[in-house]
Amino acid sequence: MSLKPPQPLSRGWPSFWRSTWYNWKTVFENPVGEVAGSLGDLGTLLPLLTAMAAAGTIDPTATFIFSGIWNIISGSLFGIPIVVQPMKAIAGISIARPMTLQETMGAGIAVSFIVFILSFTGFLAEFGERIPIPLIKGIQMGAGLSLVLNAGATLMKLSWTAHSADNYVVVILAWILLCFTSRHQQFPYALLIFGLGMMLVLGSGVEVPNPGWNLPSWMPPTGADITNGFLFAGLGQLPLTILNSIIAVSYLSADLLPERPSPSIESLGMSVASMNLIGCWFGAMPVCHGSGGLSGQFRFGARSGAAPVILGIAKVLVGLFFGSSVSALLVSFPKSFLVVLVFAAGIELAKVGEDLNSTARDLWEIQVENRAIIHPTLGLRLHRERLVRVEITDREKKERFVIMLATVGGVIASRNDAVGLLAGTVCYFGYILQEAMEDTSFLKIAFDQGNIAITGAEEVIQSKGHQALSEPKKE
């Protein structure tokens, strides 16, 4: 089995028309997969959206309408199943503190303004491309395993004896179905689970909202709201947005969808900034893209931007015709189903660490062949470039794996991507420093002399041992 070189990261903005054409082509070839895949991120979206709506920190009508619009634009522009999901740190703090709606909006605006500056100046792209691959893989794996832990936390709140669908029996049955269909990516698992869940909700006697006409209203935060929001929640969200929502998404899309141009870091940064610098003035939930959502939609069948477009259209219609009244319906969705969806998305994301020492992009280099080549259209060429795999030693493989695990451990232990990046970076430079020390002539001589001395001592001991064995015993 030949190893395939990775797709190079993109720069600049994607082609809207090419992405749209690819979306239409894919949705006709894989209609069920795109519809089912569009629901792959509901396990993250629904709990946070309903909790923030109940706490009064977002406006549900504005959230449905604006996040739906961003779904449509993102899917049409990038041509991959890129998601629009809540900024998790801001969401968690706004629920636990709790914060006011204007402070929550201020946090989203402040974070997005900083991301806009970093993207516009090109600093974000340069930073993202200079992060070592083991650290990138560690952030992605850490995010995936964090989703698994979140699923486990929700699972612990269920029981065996609950009369509703929120019990362990339903979780086990849903998990068995997922495992027995895992090799059949075309099986509409998420669509089946969502449909079954809505049937259970409607059968439980929850009041069905009446349709009406709803539009978002202007809710501008003050300067004090923006400052307080950034200090309370924005500081914790900023590294999460940069690392997981922008940089990790660019690398992950290149790994999962090598046939598609990956969205560039600068375009993802400008996308995240634009969504919140517009929507947050109307009370819409602060949103971003995310590697967990991308892996979730991919896991359940989505292969193009058609999936987020389908979800976006549904969101806009829900917001316009039902508004905040639909929140009571969504909060009753069975948590047992959401647990399995989140768990599967986390496992799919954590799988990206598998190729760290085999086909990761830093294990390939450009090789130039200096020989004359007759090209049918370009004529005579004096050289040809091709990607060749770089062989690394067993020690380098182990060290790369340890760096990735250190990053994963930092992310999981602190629930903060910045801490994980710092832990992995210290480990990375620790190995570089040791390598430099071993290559220094003085130290290398000392190490070599030490090895010679140890080897010589071992030879003396062995020779004396053989001599003692060979001498005849005296009576």
Automatic annotation (TrEMBL):
Q: Does the keyword Transmembrane apply?
A: yes
Sequence intervals crossing the membrane: 64-84, 105-125, 165-183, 189-208, 229-252, 306-330
Its keywords, alphabetically, are: Membrane, Transmembrane, Transmembrane helix
**InterPro entries hit by this protein:** MOT1/MOT2
One GO MF annotation is: molybdate ion transmembrane transporter activity
Per the record, the domain of life is: Eukaryota
Q: Is Isomerase tagged as a keyword?
A: no
Its name, as the record gives it, is Sulfate transporter
- Give the species: Dactylellina haptotyla (strain CBS 200.50)
